[in-house]
Amino acid sequence: MEPEVAKLLAIAFVMGLGTVFPAFAIGKIGSKGAEAIGRNPEAAPKVQTAMILAIAFAEAIAIYALVVSLILKFVA
Q: For 35-48, how does the pLDDT look when each residue is reduced to its tens digit (9 = 90+)?
């Protein structure tokens, strides 16, 4: 396999995993947060705060994957 092809496959792999798994995590966080609010509406502000924070952390993983793929593309 040529080095350029291997490099492009590595970039595709990093971006694929780096976007799919955070997307699943955000969906799971949202569904469980909605379920928790449905079970206990009085706790909605606390649940929403924790949910938004967890979504931000999951999104940060996708941003890290983007940065790694850009480093692989332009530096390596």
A: 999 999 999 999 99
- Which residue type sits at 46? K
For the chain, how far is it from start to end, CA to CA, in angstroms? Answer: 17
pTM above 0.90, yes or no: no
Instruction: List domains and CATH numbers for the chain.
Output: 3-71 (1.20.20.10)
Q: In 3D, which of 11, 3, 4, 7 has the Cα closest to residue 66?
A: 11
Q: Give DSSP secondary structure letters for 18-64.
A: HHHHHHHHHHHHHHHHHHHHHH-GGGHHHHHHHHHHHHHHHHHHHHH
